[in-house]
Backbone:
């Protein structure tokens, strides 16, 4: 099966939603693919210092500015997108990502494991690790940034049937890109990590993001790894059905070899 | 706290138990440490072609030749050892490792996840992921080789309190050494992987082992990584109590941040 998966990295500008959406539109308008993954909090930026600041950039999941742009792009390019955004819900704010499909349908994932001061602005996600179908049969699971350090995140998605994990990120620590190779290997899944670039300041707060967005195949091979700073899109052809084969050797299947009765949880 | 942990890699000779024990004795007799980890199936070699071949090298866990040598070394050097061996039990054969302490006490771990043709000779381990205390208070967990690819192995040991995972291995695939960095990081534990070296042939069967034994700290730092071919011992000083600190940031604790109610198992 031929399937084109893309990853887009760029440097969002804090609080400047309209500029960030225009930037993503300019990067994506001419790109054709089946699925493209974008960073965490792509429309809003990241270095917030209060809940009010987050709220000023937060959006309705189904019809906010991010949803509107990506619904239009999805329809125009016949592409599904996964993009991170600050979600305004009745119960409060979530660090979420949306899967936007060409038919206009939107699925939401709310970040399970919040990082650092995110705990001050966002509610812990309550959606869990669900898998969504695109293009009729391809299973996509969503996780966000720090979810990577908990092996249970990608494991849960793989056990739920994910062939591709769409991992929107704003990475500042040096380990994730290498660890995602392990995540792909141990679950025999494709992982697509989209990480933002740039240095972001807000008052005395400052963070440098590491780029190096990447696509990893189910055998741990790096299909593509981007550079640390530039804003661009990479599209690669993969066969998602490869992720259905959990055999490491003729004697070893990563799922049926699991011995859950011996595991502590 | 000062604690000396060592790793020994060498090239066992298939079926030649007395030669392999003599080799380990010569490598270890003058080395002082608190804990030294040795490879999987260190006394017997690995490339078996029948259950009868394994049986010819298999040992009683408490008083076989491997147990006898390491009890003597442990007493002499005041060192604990973890070493892999083929275990002869009433129910059958196990791919096991033993923790041998200076007081003569021996604890056994039986490999949970068997690799490739091991399934034809060995029974799947039934001990599970238990943690043992050495030097009065230091918690050591045992796993063997292919257990690495299942994140549940190291996770179970860490949840059981392991500060150090002693990982005896006979690695032939290229991924484990890098993946063990992720295992240390995601659990904030020390991991000590002892991997054998050399090319082993038995009839038409042949395997090349990758060496590169290593000690990784709870932040994913490589304390020591050995070369691919040589037979030697490395000893490093570590502080096992570092593994008790599961905080990644002032807001993030790798254990209390887990959200088990959302995980699939």
Residues:
């Amino acid at each position: 099966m031929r399937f084109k998966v893309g990853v887009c990295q760029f440097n969002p500008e804090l609080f400047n939603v309209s500029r960030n959406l225009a930037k993503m539109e300019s990067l994506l308008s001419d790109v054709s693919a089946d699925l493209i993954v974008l960073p965490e909090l792509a429309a809003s930026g990241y270095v917030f210092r209060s809940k009010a600041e987050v709220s000023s950039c937060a959006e309705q999941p189904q019809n906010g500015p991010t949803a509107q742009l990506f619904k239009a792009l999805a329809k125009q390019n016949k592409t599904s997108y996964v993009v991170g955004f600050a979600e305004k819900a009745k119960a409060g704010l979530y660090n979420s990502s949306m899967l936007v499909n060409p038919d206009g349908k939107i699925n939401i994932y709310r970040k399970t494991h919040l990082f650092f001061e995110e705990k001050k602005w966002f509610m812990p996600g309550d959606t869990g690790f669900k898998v969504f179908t695109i293009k009729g049969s391809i299973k996509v699971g969503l996780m966000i940034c720090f979810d990577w350090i908990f092996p249970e995140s990608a494991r849960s998605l793989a056990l739920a049937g994910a062939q591709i994990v769409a991992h929107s990120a704003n990475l500042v620590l040096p380990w994730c890109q290498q660890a995602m190779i392990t995540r792909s290997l141990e679950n025999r899944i494709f992982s697509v990590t989209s990480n933002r670039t740039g240095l972001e300041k807000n008052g005395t707060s400052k963070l440098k993001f590491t780029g190096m967005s990447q696509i990893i195949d189910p055998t741990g091979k790096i299909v593509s790894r981007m550079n640390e700073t530039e804003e661009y899109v990479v599209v690669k052809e993969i066969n998602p059905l490869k992720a259905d084969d959990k055999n490491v050797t003729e004697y070893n299947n990563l799922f049926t070899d699991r011995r859950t009765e011996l595991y502590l949880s």
